[in-house]
Every structure is written in C-alpha cells, then in structure tokens.
Amino acid sequence: MSDAEAVELETLIRSPFAAKLVEAMPEPAVIVGPDGRAAAANQPALSLLPGLKVGEPFVLALRAPDVVDARRRVMASGEVERVQWSERVPVERLFDVCVAPLATADNEVVATLLTLRDLTELRRAERMRVDFIANASHELRTPLASLLGFIETLQGSARDDAKARDRFLAIMRQQGRRMARLIEDLLSLSRIEQKQHVRPETAVDLAQTARSVVDALTPVAEDLGVEIRLSAAAPVLVTGDRDELLRVAENLIENAIKYGVRPDAGDAGHVDVSVAMTEKEATLTVRDYGYGIAPEHLPRLTERFYRVDATQSRARNGTGLGLAIVKHILTRHRGKLTITSRINHGSTFVASVPLHVKRKP
Known about the structure:
Shape: elongated
Oligomer: single chain
Order of helices and strands: HHEEHHEEEHHEHEEHEEHHEE
Largest sheet: 5 strands, antiparallel
CATH topology of the largest domain: Heat Shock Protein 90
CATH superfamily of the largest domain: Histidine kinase-like ATPase, C-terminal domain
C-alpha cells in the first residue's frame, strides 16, 4: 500500500462518515486505527469507558490484556476474534468483545472495530436459574427422603407396631404437606412471572383485603398466643388483582405471626396491621415486635429460598419463597416492598400499591 493510499485510509477511518457509522450502532463500538489510537467511538462506548477519548491510545481506556492481544492478532491475521472482558468495580460486569478487522480491497488490515456486548444480565439470569433449580431440588429432596425412609420402615420392622405407625404417619403427613406447599409456591411464582408485564386494571379494596386475611389468620395467631391489631376501617381502592393482593397480605401477616414472636417483651404477643393512603398510593403495613432482623440480611430477604433462620423456617412449614412472591406481585402492580428492622425491636414490612384512578369516559 502506497503512502498516498495509507493517508487516504487514515483519513477515511477518522472521517465524520466513520463516526456516524459507529454512532448508529446500538452497542458500545470503537474503531481503533493502526497506531492503536481510538479513531471513532459512539456514545455507549464513551459512557462505558470514561477514559476513552478519540485520538488517544485505546489501551488507556481499556486496560484488558486479552482485548489488546486479540486486537494485535486480528491486525496480523485478518480473522474476527471474540474475547471476554470483565470489570469488578464499581459493580461486577461481563462483556463479550468482538474484534473485527477493517481491511482494504487487497485484504490488508488497516484498523479494527471493537464492539462490546453486555453479558452481565444473561450471566446473572443463568446463575439464578442454576441456583433456583439447586435450591428447589434440595428443598424437595429432604422431605421426599424422609417419606421414603418412613415407608420402608413401615413395610419392615414397624409393620406390626401400631404406636410407631401412628407416629410415622403423622410425620409423613407433615412432610407431604411441606412438599405440597413448596410446589404450590413454585407454581404461584411461575404464574406471577408469566403475567409480570401485564398490569392489573381492577379496583380492589385493600382495607377489605387486609380484614379478610386477618379474619382467616386469627385462629393461627391465637394458637401461637399472638393478637393481631388491625387498623383498616375506611375503604382504600387500589388498582390490582384481588387474589394476588390477598397473597401479599397473607404472606406478610403470617410471617409476622410465625417469626415475630418474642416471649420476653411486652408487645411480643402483638402484630400490628394497618392500611393507609397518601395522595398517590396505598400502603399495607405489618409490624411485629420480635427479635428483629440483622442489617446484613435485609437486602436478601426477597431472594428465592433465602432464610434468616432456615431451621426455624422449615419447622414452621416455611418454603423460603413467601417474600419473593410478595416482591413479584408488587412489581406487577407497579408497587414496592420496604423493610425496616432493629434488633430486639421487631420489623416493619410496608407494601405500597398505586391508588385506583377512574378512567374518564
């Protein structure tokens, strides 16, 4: 390639046309000239790499040996290469970097085009899927193994032992119910996720919903020595799915009854439930006076199968999916869940849902 051709190509690489071409690409893209300097870059690339400046060495913006080596090989071979680049600060992210040659009609590579595709969400989703399957399998395996063990015992050494048979059958029934509840929660979560982007449009009285749940759970609370104090007199209309909002109230109130008990405190035997409204939203607040939740657990409470105390949760037939279901339901309703807690002072769960607005005819 002559000097004149080299100058012409260098001018083309750094021309407004090349800049507009790169700018039209949806993913971060950078053209790197033969001298290793950035010749053109689009806005996504400039946002992703704060140190990237057109006209300056590309390695100053992306200090990734794998990417630098891939670019060097592409300049020599003319073959497209893909490498991965990850960064850990300020947050962990993973990118697929495609390094493509820009060649002349004589197949002489004069520059490279780098495009970066963000794989962070895909990787996170894959991890969640793997973790979800592993956790679900583990939760089902334990009661299933228990059932099989008792069945084998009843078929063998305890065949004619009426006392042992009655005790084993009671445990088997409990384990069977645990499996049934887990499967029910898994199916509920799946159904909610399928409707995640379909916003409900029905008017629902959140106060009446809370009263219904409190009435249904009062016998359970009394058995545990807990009194539910309800403040939800006036109708509070929200836009939502009544069955799903019932599920939200049920999960929050039942959790407070089961896990918010602290026998050594004055208000330990109480759970406060209230429904209120602001200018734009309604709130369902559930307050317990239990032991509280340590700060490090709060950000993870709505993760699937996450438990602060796994032994206590399983002992009370918890599946570890209740708050995950609540979070997904509220997300569908364009609402949110706020959790505050202090050790030895109890916890407060606030579910917020937009108020129902009548459409103009």
